[in-house]
Amino acid sequence: MNDAFSIRNAIDRKALAAFLPMIDGRNYAVERDEFTDLLARLATCIPESVSLVYEHGGLNVARHHVTLQTMLELAVWLRALSACAGFGGACQSFGNPTQFWDTHFEMRVAFFMIQRPCVQALEFAAIHDVRGKKKRPDFTIELFDSATVVVECKRIHFPLSRVSQEFEKKGIDVNAALTAASFPNEYRLEMEFITPQRGAAPLLPAAIAHEAVTLSACGGGSIKAGNVALYVRRRADEFLVPLTQAGLQMNIVTLPMAGKAVRVGDPKHTSLRVTDARYTKALFKLITAAIADARSQLPEGVSGVVCIGDVPFAFANEIVAAHPERIVFPPNIAVVSLWDGDQLQIYFPDARESFVEQLVGDLLPS
Question: Starting at the edge strand that comes first in sequence, how are the strands of the sheet with 270-276 ordered?
Answer without folding.
Answer: 221-225, 228-234, 187-193, 270-276, 248-253
